[in-house]
Amino acid sequence: LLYNDKKDVPPVIETETGPTYKLQKARLGMRRVRPWVWAPFTNPARTDNVSFSHWRRVADEGKEYPFAKFNKKIEIPKYTDIEYKEHLVSET
Asked: Which GO terms describe its biological process (predicted)?
């Protein structure tokens, strides 16, 4: 048992009856279930046009692949040997 400095016994019943911090139960089954389908897709970042499949909602059937917005192409700078030696090589 837990004691304080006066060696009092803890109360047997709950002393606080204020609001509790418990979450309400989830209301499952209140809406109609949205149907899913196993659908093929192509990744626009790939150049080989390979087709993959994944689960997708029927309502999202005609939409673009959601991760296509992350397909960024950047230009990588190219230097000649002379430019590299002049500007990018440190002397230390």
From this structure: chromatin remodeling; DNA repair; methylation; negative regulation of transcription by RNA polymerase II
Structure tokens at 55: 């689960």
Q: Is the dihedral of CA 26, 27, 28, 32 positive or negative?
A: negative
pTM (predicted TM-score): 0.44
Q: How far is CA 34 from the centre of its chain?
A: 21
CB 41 within 8 A of CB 53: yes
Q: Say how far apart CA 58 and CA 34 lie, in whole Å.
A: 8
List, for residues 53-88, the tens digit of each pLDDT value: 999 999 888 888 778 888 888 899 999 999 988 888
